[in-house]
């Protein structure tokens, strides 16, 4: 018989149904007359309890069915008399498929998150990481669902790029040159014409610039893929490799952009609370996170709106003492962002029209010549979760801004040309996907929301 | 009024409906009494025709609405008297949002594919690339739909890896070291402890090994993300950066794997023919590709099955003269693969149990000690489209195979441990996503099925 997932048994099981279940032993209790095996197969937060009568011929095999062993069980579904579980399996046949070996590292006692990171190849079998990974999968699919249902197309923008002007931080270099024997030009520089692509190559820090080209062909697109920053930041909020969501809309301005961002986040909050209630309830209990009710609430109300200039006034008149002093022109710090969303608005808020000097070259210059059509979405507990802007669509203005930012105009000719050939107002934003997973799951360290985290000095697995 | 997508107008328009359309001018015809503008906004293969009466005040603006210009049109939907179009727009207001500039490169006349590759930032506005990109988006979403509906979780496996043993070809090196001033160890080697991750780092050639760890936690997973090969192959079938789909199932053997691969491909063929009929019909006409009817047919019948050994017998007894001689032990060449699927089975066929010496170290050794539980899916016209296997789940056998293949066992300890701690039979396969897009769209060159292709000596845009 083909195995049936435990999630399916729990959702659609019927009393007396014959089932085959395969999974890993979470715990075992053996007594004189019967034994209990608690099994999880990764499909669901809830385990299933299996009961084995002592007269079964395979009763002795139970010795091998230790915590972590993989088993296959044929049996019959019964309504469970136990508290908090709807079904249990009366076992007819037990096969220990793979023993758990000496020193199986994932025991029932709680392990530290640091230890679990050292066994990243196995931590997915724990309650915590099973929950996080299922929430991650669900959030990822909801990204697609949201944008596709609105007619956005998923665009695969390149990871490898010769451009280093995206201005979002340090980049990783990619090469096939033999580092022990680097080819040199006559003038003694490295001869990149002999490298794979014929020029120095990096890992992308954003798909936006390519995304703009595709939005100006297909209308509305979004990217959703890995992105890289070579920042030497050993924090709980930074990864060297992370996933970004970057929608881009043609024929759209900052207002349209802020509506999209708000509708997107409200959809994510409302729906994840609905779809992963068991996982969020487990995580909420163990990690002092928001309850699924609180997450749902975040999506239930419209977001606040405030301009950067008014936000500065709010901060200046605050009675709170900030570590970083406030004046017009500063980049908002997390403490400021949290104050605005937690204290002033008591909900997510979108701040618009930041000073041009603290924002990227591609953002549309406003009429005041001092601010750009940028926006950040700030949420309680963490501050900024989304950053975006209307893009500068005037050829001459963009060219001047590029020159002012020392962007090599020649190399970026194609990007400028998007403003020359049927250009139009367009806008988009970026969301660091792990930040969202972290926010929703309450994981304190971003290394715990991606299966195999990449951070400075750490690339095992 | 918010713009409405042309795809929506065509599907759900009503006579007399007021609409706002934004898009790019495909062509213009001006006469004394009225003018026609043909508009496309990237949402649909079919353009929409807009009619402007000569008495409109903005009639003179038409001079600026050249091919490639972006426009915004307010008007009323009318049933069209023209052939092959259901709707046209009677224009009330026209705004030229962005002119197309002198020398707009995408003129109505046909351009060569080579030329279009040189304007990759704009080629998405052509009929051909609009079609390819929409088919690509649809296929990508169907990958998710297929696996998610079967309870597989989308797993984000890392791009950056310290492992170079995946054995699937040349790798790109990733570094933050200053190449002009490389740190050296006392013995004169490059000192990778000073590199970002503290050791030599590469771009992944496959997410499989990490995917196995996740399948052995979550049950069934699939990866779908970018993958890299630094092979210096300037062909129509190779990209340095491409997207792979790699499902992995716990508690599954080669038979389960071949069923999954067959059901997956049949779903893709049947559904894409349904959902992108307009695009496929356009491409079929222009690129001598299969018609959407032929693509649907591929999915309508069960696939053939044959063992490698029997396939060799078929090839040996063929009257066809092959360029590469056939004998047991050879790696099948495209000519052999095409013969098997086109001549012997006349449909897709799954070849199983290849000689161990031509396959990767992680494939499960069969009882004959000569073959492994591998499978390739071969399709007419191109040959292999999917490769997969049951994985070796016996600790000792795998360790011996790794040693025989010079795989550093120490570094891969975590991978071996998956066989020690609750291991189980598991299996999976890999599909090069661009090969599938190429197959379905009929594009002769793989560079034309990804928006910004990365190939040797070419990394513009």
Automatic annotation (TrEMBL), chains A, B:
<dbReference type="InterPro" id="IPR004365">
    <property type="entry name" value="NA-bd_OB_tRNA"/>
</dbReference>
<keyword id="KW-0963">Cytoplasm</keyword>
<comment type="subunit">
    <text>Homodimer.</text>
</comment>
<keyword id="KW-0547">Nucleotide-binding</keyword>
<dbReference type="GO" id="GO:0005524">
    <property type="term" value="F:ATP binding"/>
</dbReference>
<dbReference type="InterPro" id="IPR045864">
    <property type="entry name" value="aa-tRNA-synth_II/BPL/LPL"/>
</dbReference>
<dbReference type="GO" id="GO:0004816">
    <property type="term" value="F:asparagine-tRNA ligase activity"/>
</dbReference>
<keyword id="KW-0030">Aminoacyl-tRNA synthetase</keyword>
<dbReference type="InterPro" id="IPR004522">
    <property type="entry name" value="Asn-tRNA-ligase"/>
</dbReference>
<keyword id="KW-0067">ATP-binding</keyword>
<dbReference type="Pfam" id="PF00152">
    <property type="entry name" value="tRNA-synt_2"/>
</dbReference>
<keyword id="KW-0436">Ligase</keyword>
<protein>
    <recommendedName>
        <fullName>Asparagine--tRNA ligase</fullName>
        <ecNumber>6.1.1.22</ecNumber>
    </recommendedName>
</protein>
<dbReference type="Pfam" id="PF01336">
    <property type="entry name" value="tRNA_anti-codon"/>
</dbReference>
<comment type="similarity">
    <text>Belongs to the class-II aminoacyl-tRNA synthetase family.</text>
</comment>
<dbReference type="InterPro" id="IPR004364">
    <property type="entry name" value="Aa-tRNA-synt_II"/>
</dbReference>
<dbReference type="GO" id="GO:0006421">
    <property type="term" value="P:asparaginyl-tRNA aminoacylation"/>
</dbReference>
<feature type="domain" description="Aminoacyl-transfer RNA synthetases class-II family profile">
    <location>
        <begin position="133"/>
        <end position="451"/>
    </location>
</feature>
<dbReference type="InterPro" id="IPR006195">
    <property type="entry name" value="aa-tRNA-synth_II"/>
</dbReference>
<dbReference type="InterPro" id="IPR012340">
    <property type="entry name" value="NA-bd_OB-fold"/>
</dbReference>
<dbReference type="InterPro" id="IPR002312">
    <property type="entry name" value="Asp/Asn-tRNA-synth_IIb"/>
</dbReference>
<dbReference type="GO" id="GO:0005737">
    <property type="term" value="C:cytoplasm"/>
</dbReference>
<keyword id="KW-0648">Protein biosynthesis</keyword>
<dbReference type="GO" id="GO:0003676">
    <property type="term" value="F:nucleic acid binding"/>
</dbReference>
């Amino acid at each position: 018989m083909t195995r049936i997932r435990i999630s399916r048994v729990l959702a659609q099981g019927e009393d007396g149904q014959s089932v085959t279940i395969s999974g890993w032993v979470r715990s075992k209790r053996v007594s004189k007359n019967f034994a209990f095996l608690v099994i999880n197969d990764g499909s669901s937060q809830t385990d299933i309890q299996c009961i084995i009568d002592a007269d079964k011929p395979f009763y002795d095999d139970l010795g091998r069915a230790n915590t972590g062993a993989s088993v296959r069980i044929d049996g019959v579904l019964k309504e469970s008399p136990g508290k908090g579980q709807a079904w249990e399996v009366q076992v007819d046949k037990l096969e220990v498929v793979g023993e758990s070996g000496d020193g199986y590292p994932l025991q029932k006692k709680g392990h530290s998150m640091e230890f679990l990171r050292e066994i990243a190849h196995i931590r997915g079998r724990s309650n915590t990481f099973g929950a996080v990974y299922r929430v991650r999968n669900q959030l990822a699919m909801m990204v697609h669902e949201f944008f596709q249902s609105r007619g956005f197309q998923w665009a695969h923008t390149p990871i490898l790029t010769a451009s280093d002007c995206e201005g979002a931080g340090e980049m990783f270099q990619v090469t096939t040159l033999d580092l022990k024997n680097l080819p040199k030009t006559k003038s003694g520089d490295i001869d990149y014409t002999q490298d794979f692509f014929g020029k120095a190559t990096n890992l992308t820090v954003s798909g936006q610039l390519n995304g703009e080209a595709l939005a100006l062909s297909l209308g509305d697109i979004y990217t959703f893929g890995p992105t890289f920053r070579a920042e030497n930041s050993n924090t709980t909020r930074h990864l060297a490799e992370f996933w970004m969501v970057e929608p881009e809309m043609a024929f759209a301005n900052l207002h349209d952009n802020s509506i999209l961002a708000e509708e997107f986040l409200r959809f994510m909050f409302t729906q994840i609370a609905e779809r992963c209630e068991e996982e969020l309830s487990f995580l909420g209990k163990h990690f002092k996170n928001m309850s699924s009710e609180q997450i749902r609430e975040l999506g239930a109300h419209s977001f606040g709106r405030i301009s950067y200039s008014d936000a500065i006034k709010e901060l200046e008149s605050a009675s709170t003492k900030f570590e970083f002093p406030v004046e017009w022109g500063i980049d908002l710090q997390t403490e400021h962002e949290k104050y605005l969303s937690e204290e002033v608005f008591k909900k997510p808020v979108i701040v618009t029209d930041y000073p041009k000097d603290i924002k990227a070259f591609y953002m549309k210059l406003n009429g005041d010549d001092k601010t750009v059509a940028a926006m950040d979405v700030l949420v309680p507990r963490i501050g900024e979760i989304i950053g975006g802007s209307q893009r500068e669509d005037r050829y001459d203005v963009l060219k001047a801004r590029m020159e002012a930012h020392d962007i090599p105009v020649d190399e970026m000719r194609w990007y400028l040309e998007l403003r020359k050939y049927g250009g139009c107002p367009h806008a988009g934003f970026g969301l660091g996907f792990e930040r969202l997973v972290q926010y929703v799951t309450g994981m304190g360290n971003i290394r715990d929301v991606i299966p195999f985290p990449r951070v400075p000095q750490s690339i095992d697995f």
